[in-house]
Amino acid sequence: xxxxxxxxxxxxxxxxxxxxxxxxxxxxxxxxxxxxxxxxxxxxxxxxxxxxxxxxxxxxxxxxxxxxxxxxxxxxxxxxxxxxxxxxxxxxxxxxxxxxxxxxxxxxxxxxxxxxxxxxxxxxxxxxxxxxxxxxxxxxxxxxxxxxxxxxxxxxxxxxxxxxxxxxxxxxxxxxxxxxxxxxxxxxxxxxxxxxxxxxxxxxxxxxxxxxxxxxxxxxxxxxxxxxxxxxxxxxxxxxxxxxxxxxxxxxxxxxxxxxxxxxxxxxxxxxxxxxxxxxxxxxxxxxxxxxxxxxxxxxxxxxxxxxxxxxxxxxxxxxxxxxxxxxxxxxxxxxxxxxxxxxxxxxxxxxxxx
Length: 355
Description:
With 355 residues, this protein is α+β, with helices and mostly antiparallel strands. Among the domains are: 8-81 and 103-193, no CATH class; 282-355, no CATH class. It has helices at residues 8-17, 34-42, 56-60, 62-65, 86-90, 107-125, 142-148, 186-193, 203-207, 225-231, 253-256, 283-287, 291-297, 308-320, 326-336, 341-354; strands at 22-26, 71-78, 97-98, 131-134, 153-154, 160-161, 169-176, 213-215, 218-219, 247-249. The strands form four sheets. A four-stranded antiparallel β-sheet has the order 1-2-7-4, with helices on both faces. A two-stranded parallel ribbon has the order 3-10. The chain starts with 7 loop residues before the first helix and ends with a helix. 40% of the residues are buried.
């Protein structure tokens, strides 16, 4: 007896039971996105993120990354926890701002586990189904696949936007060899969902602290605060430091001021509930942590993406952008005595700012 493929409605029901707000199904043709990706990399906008150059062909061709793949299930899950008051934190110089996606449990583990459960449900109906689940963890063009899967459109800030959900959500994918049905008219469905509804709005471009959004959908990562505080390992350019304010891990400004996020959906998932008071931490409390304490604080968190040196560097800049106080100057001078040359340079910059 031939196995029956689950239809879209069944898959949506399974996905929603696992905490996903929506899924889309698409084929593996990313030809429309390839020129933009290659041009962006060629111009050096990826900065030191060499992994974006590696396995580029697999990134552009899902069936090369996972042989036999003919469909991609793209899923989104809301992560913004209510009442974290991001704007209030940004306006208090003695507090540190951490991107809202990193306040709870590590999203890589949360989403990948649930995607695997969704794939297992498909497996129960398709004995020869092969799959692989991803969440920002492999050479996958997540936003292109989400747009192609009709989960939304790519905004000027290059994030996926949805009229009801805004942009505060994670993306995940299942690559599969199961020939799942596409929408009756997949091209029409994609065009309707991915229609650019940003219009003449340039809010994200205007408010970007470092002007990293060069033009619609074109980001120079080398100027982006998320890149500088997380991906970049070395010294941060002096001219960009003042604009970083008190942002110590990531930056949400392009989302905070996006009109589509005024009524964005929040999450009820306990996995994304802020931990350890990191939604509004005091800068000096964080700066005075030892490396062991830092590792304990960030255990099970996406914040493990940065090491203790990057953490100390980011905090030194934020303190330097704040208000001078005896406690701040004392903490900076004390840490400088044992800091690496890279961190000490940022501490010295902060001391000069505060003096």
